[in-house]
Amino acid sequence: MSRARATAPSPGHRHLAFSDIEWHEGHERVAEGIDFVRRAVSEWQVGTEALGGDEEQAVDVLLVAAELLSNAERHGGGATAIDIEPRSGALCLTVTDVSPLPPRQVRPHLPERTSGHGLYIIDRLSTAWGWVPCRSGKAVWAELPAGSLQARCDRAAM
Question: Which of 14, 25, 75, 95 is most open to solvent, judged by the fewest CB atoms within 10 Å of its CB?
Answer without folding.
Answer: 25
